[in-house]
Protein backbone atom coordinates (compact mmCIF):
# COMPACT_ATOMS: atom_id res chain seq x y z
CA UNK A 1 0.00 0.00 0.00
CA UNK A 2 2.79 2.40 0.87
CA UNK A 3 6.15 3.10 -0.67
CA UNK A 4 8.81 4.92 1.31
CA UNK A 5 12.34 6.22 1.27
CA UNK A 6 15.50 4.73 2.73
CA UNK A 7 15.04 3.66 6.37
CA UNK A 8 17.25 4.81 9.19
CA UNK A 9 19.99 2.47 10.42
CA UNK A 10 18.21 -0.08 12.67
CA UNK A 11 18.86 -0.67 16.33
CA UNK A 12 19.34 -4.45 16.19
CA UNK A 13 18.56 -4.93 19.88
CA UNK A 14 14.82 -4.75 19.23
CA UNK A 15 14.70 -5.14 15.44
CA UNK A 16 12.86 -8.46 15.49
CA UNK A 17 9.89 -7.35 17.65
CA UNK A 18 9.56 -4.13 15.67
CA UNK A 19 9.68 -6.00 12.37
CA UNK A 20 7.07 -8.51 13.52
CA UNK A 21 4.83 -5.71 14.80
CA UNK A 22 5.23 -3.68 11.60
CA UNK A 23 4.53 -6.69 9.40
CA UNK A 24 1.38 -7.62 11.31
CA UNK A 25 0.14 -4.03 11.31
CA UNK A 26 0.55 -4.00 7.54
CA UNK A 27 -1.49 -7.19 7.28
CA UNK A 28 -4.26 -5.75 9.43
CA UNK A 29 -4.18 -2.53 7.39
CA UNK A 30 -4.70 -4.60 4.24
CA UNK A 31 -7.57 -6.60 5.80
CA UNK A 32 -9.32 -3.36 6.80
CA UNK A 33 -8.77 -1.88 3.35
CA UNK A 34 -10.47 -4.81 1.62
CA UNK A 35 -11.63 -8.31 2.58
CA UNK A 36 -8.84 -10.91 2.75
CA UNK A 37 -8.75 -13.25 -0.23
CA UNK A 38 -9.27 -17.00 -0.14
CA UNK A 39 -5.49 -17.65 -0.49
CA UNK A 40 -4.86 -15.29 2.43
CA UNK A 41 -7.38 -17.15 4.59
CA UNK A 42 -5.90 -20.49 3.53
CA UNK A 43 -2.41 -19.27 4.45
CA UNK A 44 -3.60 -18.22 7.91
CA UNK A 45 -5.25 -21.62 8.39
CA UNK A 46 -2.11 -23.49 7.26
CA UNK A 47 0.52 -24.87 9.65
CA UNK A 48 2.83 -22.02 8.64
CA UNK A 49 0.11 -19.49 9.42
CA UNK A 50 -0.48 -21.07 12.80
CA UNK A 51 3.24 -20.77 13.57
CA UNK A 52 3.03 -17.06 12.75
CA UNK A 53 0.04 -16.66 15.07
CA UNK A 54 1.92 -18.51 17.81
CA UNK A 55 4.84 -16.09 17.41
CA UNK A 56 2.53 -13.07 17.64
CA UNK A 57 0.79 -14.49 20.72
CA UNK A 58 4.08 -15.08 22.50
CA UNK A 59 5.92 -11.92 21.45
CA UNK A 60 3.11 -9.48 22.30
CA UNK A 61 1.26 -11.36 25.05
CA UNK A 62 -1.68 -11.61 22.66
CA UNK A 63 -2.93 -15.07 23.58
CA UNK A 64 -6.57 -14.06 24.05
CA UNK A 65 -6.71 -12.09 20.79
CA UNK A 66 -4.98 -14.89 18.87
CA UNK A 67 -7.37 -17.43 20.36
CA UNK A 68 -10.28 -15.32 19.06
CA UNK A 69 -8.68 -15.12 15.62
CA UNK A 70 -8.04 -18.87 15.55
CA UNK A 71 -11.67 -19.55 16.45
CA UNK A 72 -12.86 -17.26 13.64
CA UNK A 73 -10.51 -18.97 11.17
CA UNK A 74 -11.80 -22.40 12.20
CA UNK A 75 -15.37 -21.53 11.18
CA UNK A 76 -15.07 -23.23 7.79
CA UNK A 77 -12.89 -23.96 4.75
CA UNK A 78 -11.06 -21.03 3.18
CA UNK A 79 -13.38 -20.86 0.17
CA UNK A 80 -16.51 -20.49 2.32
CA UNK A 81 -14.91 -18.39 5.01
CA UNK A 82 -13.53 -15.85 2.53
CA UNK A 83 -17.05 -15.24 1.22
CA UNK A 84 -18.50 -14.94 4.72
CA UNK A 85 -15.78 -12.50 5.77
CA UNK A 86 -16.37 -10.43 2.62
CA UNK A 87 -20.07 -10.16 3.47
CA UNK A 88 -19.22 -9.11 7.02
CA UNK A 89 -16.67 -6.59 5.72
CA UNK A 90 -19.32 -4.96 3.53
CA UNK A 91 -21.85 -4.90 6.36
CA UNK A 92 -19.41 -3.37 8.82
CA UNK A 93 -17.38 -0.96 6.75
CA UNK A 94 -19.52 -0.01 3.75
CA UNK A 95 -23.05 -0.52 5.02
CA UNK A 96 -25.88 -2.21 3.18
CA UNK A 97 -28.69 0.45 3.30
CA UNK A 98 -27.19 3.57 4.80
CA UNK A 99 -24.09 4.49 6.74
CA UNK A 100 -21.43 1.91 7.66
CA UNK A 101 -21.58 0.43 11.13
CA UNK A 102 -17.86 1.04 11.65
CA UNK A 103 -16.39 4.05 9.81
CA UNK A 104 -12.76 3.52 8.83
CA UNK A 105 -11.83 7.21 8.50
CA UNK A 106 -10.38 9.39 11.24
CA UNK A 107 -12.57 12.28 10.04
CA UNK A 108 -15.66 10.34 11.11
CA UNK A 109 -14.46 10.38 14.74
CA UNK A 110 -13.44 14.04 14.87
CA UNK A 111 -16.41 15.40 16.83
CA UNK A 112 -17.17 12.50 19.16
CA UNK A 113 -15.16 9.25 18.96
CA UNK A 114 -17.93 7.44 20.84
CA UNK A 115 -20.48 8.42 18.16
CA UNK A 116 -18.71 8.42 14.80
CA UNK A 117 -20.50 9.76 11.74
CA UNK A 118 -20.14 8.79 8.08
CA UNK A 119 -17.92 11.81 7.40
CA UNK A 120 -15.21 12.08 4.74
CA UNK A 121 -12.51 14.60 3.87
CA UNK A 122 -12.20 16.34 7.24
CA UNK A 123 -9.11 18.12 8.54
CA UNK A 124 -7.54 14.73 9.27
CA UNK A 125 -7.08 14.14 5.52
CA UNK A 126 -4.99 17.30 5.10
CA UNK A 127 -3.00 16.49 8.24
CA UNK A 128 -2.24 12.97 7.05
CA UNK A 129 -1.28 14.18 3.58
CA UNK A 130 1.19 16.54 5.24
CA UNK A 131 2.62 13.69 7.32
CA UNK A 132 3.04 11.49 4.25
CA UNK A 133 5.06 14.27 2.64
CA UNK A 134 7.01 14.98 5.83
CA UNK A 135 8.08 11.35 6.18
CA UNK A 136 8.65 10.86 2.43
CA UNK A 137 6.02 8.16 2.16
CA UNK A 138 3.88 7.71 -0.95
CA UNK A 139 0.57 5.91 -1.40
CA UNK A 140 0.69 3.05 -3.85
CA UNK A 141 -3.02 3.63 -4.48
CA UNK A 142 -5.16 6.75 -4.19
CA UNK A 143 -8.34 4.74 -3.68
CA UNK A 144 -8.96 6.01 -0.15
CA UNK A 145 -8.46 9.38 1.60
CA UNK A 146 -5.26 9.59 3.60
CA UNK A 147 -7.07 9.41 6.96
CA UNK A 148 -8.28 5.85 6.26
CA UNK A 149 -7.14 3.54 9.05
CA UNK A 150 -5.23 1.37 6.59
CA UNK A 151 -3.10 4.35 5.51
CA UNK A 152 -2.42 5.48 9.08
CA UNK A 153 -1.45 1.97 10.18
CA UNK A 154 0.77 1.52 7.13
CA UNK A 155 2.57 4.80 7.87
CA UNK A 156 3.02 3.73 11.48
CA UNK A 157 4.52 0.44 10.29
CA UNK A 158 6.97 2.30 8.05
CA UNK A 159 8.09 4.47 10.96
CA UNK A 160 8.54 1.40 13.17
CA UNK A 161 10.85 -0.11 10.56
CA UNK A 162 12.79 3.15 10.31
CA UNK A 163 13.11 3.36 14.10
CA UNK A 164 11.94 6.96 13.83
CA UNK A 165 11.18 7.64 17.51
CA UNK A 166 9.58 11.05 16.91
CA UNK A 167 7.43 9.76 14.08
CA UNK A 168 6.40 6.67 16.04
CA UNK A 169 5.36 8.77 19.04
CA UNK A 170 3.44 11.16 16.80
CA UNK A 171 1.51 8.37 15.08
CA UNK A 172 0.82 6.53 18.34
CA UNK A 173 -0.69 9.69 19.78
CA UNK A 174 -2.73 10.22 16.62
CA UNK A 175 -4.02 6.65 16.49
CA UNK A 176 -4.85 6.72 20.21
CA UNK A 177 -7.38 9.51 19.62
CA UNK A 178 -9.75 7.45 17.52
CA UNK A 179 -8.67 3.86 16.79
CA UNK A 180 -9.75 2.56 20.24
CA UNK A 181 -13.32 3.58 19.33
CA UNK A 182 -13.01 1.79 15.99
CA UNK A 183 -11.70 -1.30 17.78
CA UNK A 184 -14.59 -1.25 20.23
CA UNK A 185 -17.16 -0.92 17.42
CA UNK A 186 -15.64 -3.87 15.56
CA UNK A 187 -15.73 -6.00 18.69
CA UNK A 188 -19.33 -5.04 19.49
CA UNK A 189 -20.63 -5.56 15.95
CA UNK A 190 -18.64 -8.65 15.00
CA UNK A 191 -18.37 -10.69 18.22
CA UNK A 192 -16.80 -14.03 17.48
CA UNK A 193 -16.08 -12.97 13.91
CA UNK A 194 -12.91 -12.35 11.95
CA UNK A 195 -13.01 -8.56 12.15
CA UNK A 196 -13.79 -8.53 15.84
CA UNK A 197 -10.77 -10.76 16.43
CA UNK A 198 -8.56 -8.65 14.16
CA UNK A 199 -9.64 -5.55 16.07
CA UNK A 200 -8.66 -7.21 19.35
CA UNK A 201 -5.25 -8.09 17.91
CA UNK A 202 -4.81 -4.53 16.63
CA UNK A 203 -5.42 -3.22 20.13
CA UNK A 204 -2.71 -5.51 21.52
CA UNK A 205 -0.18 -4.50 18.86
CA UNK A 206 -0.78 -0.82 19.41
CA UNK A 207 -0.44 -1.26 23.15
CA UNK A 208 2.85 -3.12 22.88
CA UNK A 209 4.83 -1.01 20.45
CA UNK A 210 8.38 -2.39 20.78
CA UNK A 211 10.85 -0.21 22.57
CA UNK A 212 8.37 2.51 23.48
CA UNK A 213 6.46 3.40 26.62
CA UNK A 214 3.09 1.65 26.56
CA UNK A 215 -0.13 3.64 26.20
CA UNK A 216 -3.52 2.58 27.53
CA UNK A 217 -5.16 0.41 24.88
CA UNK A 218 -5.73 -2.67 27.05
CA UNK A 219 -9.44 -2.22 27.68
CA UNK A 220 -9.95 -2.54 23.92
CA UNK A 221 -7.43 -5.28 23.35
CA UNK A 222 -8.54 -8.40 25.20
From TrEMBL:
Name of a matching Pfam family: Nitrate_red_del
Gene3D superfamilies documented for this protein: TorD-like
SUPFAM superfamilies: TorD-like
Domain of life: Bacteria
Keywords, alphabetical: Chaperone
Name of protein: TorA-specific chaperone
Species, as recorded: Cupriavidus agavae
Amino acid sequence: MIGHGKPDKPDKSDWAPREICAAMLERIAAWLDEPPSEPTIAQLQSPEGQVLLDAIAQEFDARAAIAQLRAALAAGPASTLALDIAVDWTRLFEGVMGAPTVPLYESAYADDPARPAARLFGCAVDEMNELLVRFDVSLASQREPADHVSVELALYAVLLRRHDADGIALMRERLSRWVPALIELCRLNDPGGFHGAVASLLGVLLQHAPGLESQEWSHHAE
